[in-house]
Specification:
With about 500 residues, the protein is α/β, with parallel strands linked by helices. It has 19 helices and 22 strands. Helix 6 packs across helix 7, helix 9 packs parallel to helix 11 and helix 14 packs across helix 19.
Amino acid sequence: MLKTLAFYLPQFYRTPENDEWWSEGYTEWVAVKAAEKLYEGHNQPRVPLNQNYYNLLEHDTMAWQAELMEKYHIHGMCMYHYWFENGRKVLEKPAENLLGWKDIAMPFCFCWANETWVRTWKKLEGSNNWTSLYEPKRKSDDNGILIKQCYGREKDWEEHFQYLLPFFKDDRYIKLNGMPLFLILTPSNITPLWNMLHYFRMRAGENGLPGIYVIGMEDSRIPGMDATLIKQPVHEMMSFMQTHSQCPIMHPYDVMWEGILNRKIKRDKTYLCGVVDFDDTPRKGRDYGYIVEGASPEKFYQYFKKLYRKSLLLDNEFVFVNAWNEWGEGMYLEPDEAHGYGYLEAIRQTVTECESESLSKAEAESEDFYETESESDSWKVEKAFGALRLHDKLLEDWMYIRDHEINLSQFFRKYGYCNVAIYGMGKLGSHLLYELRKGGINVSFGIDKNAKDCKSKMDIEIYSPEQKMPKTDAVVITILNHYADISEMLIPSMKCPMITMEEIIQELMPEQ
């Protein structure tokens, strides 16, 4: 059975962070209530049905949401999960409360919104009529970073896993073949991703779970992911935004949905996502806002049914909707004064009608869902150029760190890696050897496929990957874009952490 999952924003209650950053009492409702009608026919401000400006800390609120889900065939909430450097959590109370409120029948899973929080509204001061009231004055050296995202190593991963485990084991947590569903917003940001997920899955097995089913919300499969989700509307709108200069930027609802439905996918496991509506002027105002024009429950029903049917033909287990309650961006299924329960009715009607349809395998094979070979080749070329850009950025960031008198050895001392090996003894490897020695870290040996050639140039022992090697605290992999393959090859025999150059530099980069 295809399950409809809606993204869920846990921003509708007071938090110490919002009190500090935007002044006391700020919640998402502040921006929603203060939205302005920017032109005739503009659907702002958005008003919840019966002015239900709820508080997510109240039991009755989440019970009401769960009742709506069941009635209108929303099978689960995909809740945004915020976990930052040193295990700092934000907006965690609704999920934690739900864990304790066993009487609320709300199936759920997590989407880790793994990005550094930046004061983007700092640049928009004056564009909303509430920012001058709610944004306190900042120091002149404020860099705009509210909470830094940092991924750490095994100790940090264990803390994160232990936090997630009670949720994963909850009967209401959404699973696939017994594996908890875990989405990651930007997996490419996590340089130790493969190693971290390997650790998570190992710990899941040790705690009675068959694994963790990880979905990456980016355009292409990244090593460590089980599947991809093409989240909307972000992907389809970015190119349009770059070519239009009017304020606010306006985009037809029909055109947006045509792009969603016609977009070709790769042949890897790919889940689809629809969008209810979009208007972020409550947050960004006229000068920086983006509005999708022409949305209605009737149109949403027509388009979502096509997306739902496409997901059935792809034999997918889930289809996603953005969103349940993103009121500040105009993406919500919850009832409002303008449309009542119209969007929820569209979901129910779609599910009811499609469940009674019989779709043949031949019909699925006749649909043109996938990229052509030439389109796939084009993507491979872009990926190759991306690798070159990554290499250049790594060197640039490394020099930036050096300019700030930060030695890479600080990373190794922090995690207690006193003796390390280096995989890949080319230019990056030789520079790393020099810098680690200078910083007092012992490089025990190197590993390279061309070990014989390297030995004549280095004053340390160089092993080939297939040779038996001494024990060491960690291996640093300097070969970019091949981390997962190399790590998977070495872990069984070396049984020590695998670290990338990107990971080291990402963690040591000064806040800018």
